[in-house]
Structures are given as structure tokens and as C-alpha cells.
């Protein structure tokens, strides 16, 4: 009788306890969860319902209060907020997956070999390739059209340099684009040698060629987005800031997301031409659970690798060349003034110290008296000492740490010793701005966010060079770096209340690793790969 009474009491206790539990979609237990909240605290479990975090705490606390048919044992693994790439070219990367890949080539001969293989495989009527970089070659000089003309005399060829600010084309493409030695170049360069175009175009004149490239079909556009999305999830990226999109692609992304075909979160920067500005200032900010359209992307100058970045003084390795602004100062100011009068954010590409001076002065002038605008300088690569103070006034530096470790081999030749002191100065920018947003600029660099983390912390490339780190005074701590890839990036997008940290009420976007990013040996960081990636509580990898 005593046994029966004890059994009934225990049964009632368990039944009551079960009735008091809240049923949720998913519970994660027995993990180390870096919440990246204000105290940078950790937890071991969290409960997720309808895509959002409803509780986070110890495994005992969560399992006492919640129950789920989908309870996942974290097995001691390490969980971080879903990673955010604060500056990339997501759609362009997807397109590049449909085109010839020239990254890592060491010579023009190797480029020709890859293009021949691409032609045999795809049989295109117009060859487009991406990713060459003459700085990786034994002879670090721009190629010419000569080799392309021999290999491809009857089909147009357009090859984008790795930074997207220079192209090499063959004679067929030059002819179709109507480019001759007499074609005027404003905001860039058409290289001429022996009275003829060499095939190299830098910055604005590239548009003459881009106009003749056949537009991708809708089928190719969709394949580009979905192929790129898979790569993002494989690397633990749950939000990407696409730096320069046209309305047509933004609309396509929205349609695919609403149809549940595409799931990735996108922070879209609209290409800041007058037509797009007029359209979106009239439409206003557009936001869904997956898409945020509230910013414009403006270009101040070109890139350092192609000597298109606009400098106060000539390039150290090419006296007389300063680079160039891609538009006159009044035109840049006009765009900024229009956007300042709206609720939209402006994010401007500025690499050279002169371009940064111009854009920062414009920002200060047009934002006078306006609070919490969070306008960004994209890249902020080379600055004068006196210009760092502009970042005290709410301007956010959005930088790409792997640029430092890619460029370190040749940047000193371009800039000279004095200017290098204030180049890739991420710690100094953080100290002035209070936050820093981190990205990759892929496909200029690799997608892998662990390369970003490693470059920011160790200031070394993937081969762990240089031994002591590159300009280590500007290295970031691991905590600062993780914040730059999560909560600070979210803040820079006005999205800090919904993502960027693992807290109650925020989306359950997170990535799981089997090693601790905050403690693992520095030279092992680049080898880390996510075990799984979750977007709004759903496993996507």
C-alpha cells in the first residue's frame, strides 16, 4: 500500500511538472553558447519557438521549464550568433559561379588555359571571367589584349580583375564596345600603348564594355542566388550585406524569399545612381523578415591594387599617378544631400586617403544636426592622421580584414612607409568609432569568415605569414572581432534588436562549431568549419 501511494505521488508530481512545461519547437542543451550580449556571457541551453529565442540559460533551467519533440544535445559544442558579412557582393559572387574562375592564376598563360577549359565545357558566345590579380604574378604588370587575341580572335572576352576595378578585354570586345584610342575616359583610365588600347580599362570606362555583355537570363540569376546561398550556409553566414544592387535583383530576392525558395537574410545596398535614388526615396524603406532595403551604396574612388584609389599624393611606385574620384565632388555631395534628407543610410566606398577626406567632409556637412544615421565608410583603407577623428561622430567604419593580409605583399610599394602607418588601421578606427563592422568583400576575397577572423586577430594570411603579424598595433581582440562579425555588424544595419546576439526575442540565427573560436590556437582558426548552421531556428546546413 505504501509503495502504491508513493508511486501515485511520484506520478502526480511528474504529471504536474510536465503540464507546467512550455512546449517549444526546438531545445538545444549541453553546449557552450556565446550570447554576445552586453556582458559577453555564455549559456549552455536555449529554447526556440516560431524562429525566435524564447529562453536562454543553463541546461537545467531550460529543461525544467520547456519541452520539445526536437531536443538537440549540443554535446559540448560551441554556438555563436549567425555570422554577418558586413560588406560583400553576394549576387555578383553567385554570377561568378556561372562564369570562368580565374582566382589564384599566376600568369596570363594559366588564364588562357582556364578559359579554354571553360569554353570547352560551357560553349559560351561571350566569355566572362573573374579574379585575376597581376600582383600574384612573377612579372607584376598589367596584361595586354595580345594573348587573348591570339587565343580568342572571334569571341569577345572580358576578364574582371579581383577587386572589380579593372578589366582586361580582347580586341573583339573593344570593337563591340566602340572603344578606340580616341575614347574619352572620365573617372578612370583606358590604357594606351603604341597608339592603341592595350585592353586594360580601369573604373568608369569599364561600363562601356559591361553594356555589351549579354544580360543573364532569369534562370541564371536565380541559379546565381541559390548557388551563392548554399555557400553562405556552409560557412555559417546567416546575413549578408550586398554592397550595390539594382532594383530588379532586389525584387527577385524578395520574390524568392517570399516563396520560401531562398532563405538567407540580405541587407541590400541599392546602387546610388539618380534613377534608383528617385525610385527608392519615393518608395521608402522596405523591410521583411529576410530582406532589409534601407541603404544606398555610393562609390568614391577605385581600388589600390589597380592604382585607382584616390590619393592626396602620387603613388610611391608610379610618380604622377594619383588615382581618381569616380564622380566630381559636387555630384557626390548632391547624392549625399538627397539621402540625408530621407531616412535612408548611405554607405560609401572610399579607399584612398584623398577619397576618404572628401567623403568624410561631405558626411559631416550633410549630417549636421541629424542623429543616429549610422552612415558607413566602406573599406576606410588609407587615411590621413587628422581624418580618423571624423569617426567620433557616429560614422561607422566597415572594413575587410583579409584586405590587409592580401595587400601587405605590395601595398607598401604603392603607399610608401609613411602612408602605410595609417593603412588597414582597424584598431585605430575602432577606438575612434566605438564599433567596427567586419566583412570580406567577396568575391574580391574568399567567402570564408574564418579567414576574416584570423586576419583581424593575427594579422596573418591563411599560410600564417608574416610570422609576427602585419602591423600588429592594429590587430583586434577575439571578442572585438566576433562582435564585428555579429552584433556590431547588426547595429550598423539598424538590426541589433533582432539579430547579432543570442538573446530572448531575437531570431534564432546561430552557427555551431566543435571547437572554441575564442580559445583555439591562432593557427587553427582558418581550419574551422561549422558543424551546422541555423536560420530562424531551422537547420540550413
TrEMBL record:
The Amidohydrolase domain, residue ranges: 71-539
UniProt-recorded Gene Ontology molecular function terms: hydrolase activity, acting on carbon-nitrogen (but not peptide) bonds
Family annotation (CDD domains): YtcJ_like (cd01300)
Protein name: Amidohydrolase 3 domain-containing protein
Amino acid at each position: 500500500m505504501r509503495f502504491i501511494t508513493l508511486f501515485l505521488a511520484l506520478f502526480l508530481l511528474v504529471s504536474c511538472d510536465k503540464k507546467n512545461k512550455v512546449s517549444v519547437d526546438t531545445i538545444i542543451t549541453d553546449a557552450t553558447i556565446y550570447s554576445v550580449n552586453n556582458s559577453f556571457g555564455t549559456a549552455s541551453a536555449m529554447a526556440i519557438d516560431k524562429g525566435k529565442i524564447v529562453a536562454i540559460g543553463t541546461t537545467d533551467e531550460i529543461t525544467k521549464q520547456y519541452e520539445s519533440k526536437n531536443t538537440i544535445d549540443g554535446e559540448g559544442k560551441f554556438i555563436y550568433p549567425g555570422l554577418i558579412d558586413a560588406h560583400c557582393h553576394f549576387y555578383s559572387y553567385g554570377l561568378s559561379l556561372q562564369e570562368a574562375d580565374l582566382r589564384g592564376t599566376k600568369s596570363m598563360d594559366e588564364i588562357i588555359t582556364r578559359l579554354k577549359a571553360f569554353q570547352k565545357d560551357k560553349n559560351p558566345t561571350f566569355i566572362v571571367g573573374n579574379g585575376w590579380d597581376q600582383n600574384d604574378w612573377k612579372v607584376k604588370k598589367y596584361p595586354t589584349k595580345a594573348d587573348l587575341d591570339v587565343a580568342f580572335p572571334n569571341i569577345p572576352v572580358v576578364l574582371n580583375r579581383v577587386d572589380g576595378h579593372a578589366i582586361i578585354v580582347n580586341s573583339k570586345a573593344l570593337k563591340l564596345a566602340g572603344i578606340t584610342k580616341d575614347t574619352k575616359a572620365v573617372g578612370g583610365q583606358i590604357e594606351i600603348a603604341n597608339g592603341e588600347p592595350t585592353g586594360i580599362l580601369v573604373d568608369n570606362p569599364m561600363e562601356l564594355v559591361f553594356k555589351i555583355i549579354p544580360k543573364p537570363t532569369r534562370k541564371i540569376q536565380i541559379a546565381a542566388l541559390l548557388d551563392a546561398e548554399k555557400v553562405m550556409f556552409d560557412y555559417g553566414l546567416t546575413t549578408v550585406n550586398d554592397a550595390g544592387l539594382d532594383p530588379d535583383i532586389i525584387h527577385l530576392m524578395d520574390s524568392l524569399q517570399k516563396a520560401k525558395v531562398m532563405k538567407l537574410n540580405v541587407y541590400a545596398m541599392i546602387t546610388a545612381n539618380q534613377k534608383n535614388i528617385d525610385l527608392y526615396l519615393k518608395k521608402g524603406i522596405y523591410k521583411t523578415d529576410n530582406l532589409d532595403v534601407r541603404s544606398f551604396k555610393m562609390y568614391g574612388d577605385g581600388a589600390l591594387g589597380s592604382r585607382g584609389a584616390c590619393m592626396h599624393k602620387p603613388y610611391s611606385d608610379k610618380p604622377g599617378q594619383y588615382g581618381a574620384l569616380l564622380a566630381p565632388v559636387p555630384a557626390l555631395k548632391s547624392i549625399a544631400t538627397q539621402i540625408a534628407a530621407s531616412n535612408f543610410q548611405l554607405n560609401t566606398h572610399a579607399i584612398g586617403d584623398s577619397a576618404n577626406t572628401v567623403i568624410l567632409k561631405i558626411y559631416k556637412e550633410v549630417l549636421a544636426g541629424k542623429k543616429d544615421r549610422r552612415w558607413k565608410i566602406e573599406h576606410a583603407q588609407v587615411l590621413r592622421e587628422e581624418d580618423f577623428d571624423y569617426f567620433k561622430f557616429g560614422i561607422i567604419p566597415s572594413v575587410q580584414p583579409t584586405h590587409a593580409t592580401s595587400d601587405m605583399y605590395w601595398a607598401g610599394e604603392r603607399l610608401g612607409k609613411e602612408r602605410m602607418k595609417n593603412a588597414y588601421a582597424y584598431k585605430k578606427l575602432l577606438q575612434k568609432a566605438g564599433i567596427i563592422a567586419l566583412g570580406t568583400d567577396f568575391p574580391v576575397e574568399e567567402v570564408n569568415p574564418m579567414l576574416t577572423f584570423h586576419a583581424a586577430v593575427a594579422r596573418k594570411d591563411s599560410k600564417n605569414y608574416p610570422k609576427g603579424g602585419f602591423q600588429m598595433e592594429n590587430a583586434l581582440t577575439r571578442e572585438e572581432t566576433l562582435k564585428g562579425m555579429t552584433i556590431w555588424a547588426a547595429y550598423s544595419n539598424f538590426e541589433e534588436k533582432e539579430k547579432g546576439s543570442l538573446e530572448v526575442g531575437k531570431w534564432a540565427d546561430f552557427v555551431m562549431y566543435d571547437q572554441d573560436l575564442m580559445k583555439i590556437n591562432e593557427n587553427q582558426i582558418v581550419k574551422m568549419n561549422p558543424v551546422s548552421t541555423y536560420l530562424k531556428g531551422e537547420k540550413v546546413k
